[in-house]
Design goal:
The complex is a heterodimer of chains A (110) and B (114). Chain A has 110 residues and is mainly beta. Helices cover 0% and strands 56% of the residues of chain A. Chain A has no helices and eleven strands. In chain A, a hairpin with a 6-residue loop joins β4 and β5. The radius of gyration of chain A is 13 Å and the shape is globular. In chain B, the strands form two sheets. In chain B, strands 2, 4, 5, 6, 9, 10 and 11 form a seven-stranded mixed sheet that branches. In chain B, strands 1-3-8-7 form a four-stranded antiparallel sheet, with no helix packed on it. In chain B, β4 and β5 form a beta hairpin. The chains are: A mainly beta (110), B mainly beta (114). At the A-B interface, β5, β9 and β10 of A face β4, β5, β9 and β10 of B.
Amino acid sequence: QKEVEQNSGPLSVPEGAIASLNCTYSDRGSQSFFWYRQYSGKSPELIMSIYSNGDKEDGRFTAQLNKASQYVSLLIRDSQPSDSATYLCAALQGAQKLVFGQGTRLTINP
Amino acid sequence: KAGVTQTPRYLIKTRGQQVTLSCSPISGHRSVSWYQQTPGQGLQFLFEYFSETQRNKGNFPGRFSGRQFSNSRSEMNVSTLELGDSALYLCASSGPGQGNYGYTFGSGTRLTVV
């Protein structure tokens, strides 16, 4: 079992709709979680961090964390073609090591 | 504010050679991590340094090593290169203002071993 698992996709969403990205993790000791966006040929860019159970909103992005279910999600509202990218879920282990999922490739169709 | 700077951007090396990659973190950041990204394995943690001390190391062979200097700049070295070492090597830094260990990545060094 991978430590952080994501559906690799591709996930295709029409422009203006809500894109929902999911991630599960196996290490119950992980307390901090991050979503990174990576465009093709570029490096990962941090878009959201979440540490407490519940929702955290930042503009069109909402991160959700459920530690009991070991589940993290990212919602993107009003999806735009510029949101087309690979989204990486990461869990922080031991305060220093980010463990990444394989990433979900998201395509927003105009 | 300058971001994380990695040099060089691209490298082509021959099997058996060694290579040194450099990373300058965001000013004020003292934690520097290195990751390897390949299509098959994704992003994998190599090691993390804080105040010149390696605090954590991933599951990579001893051919992969690193160090951090007093100004927080970091280098990683790969000796006796193998074809499988071809990858994007990413450096990330974290410090005050990032909020609980959020890491900012540099643009990466694309290493090709031939």
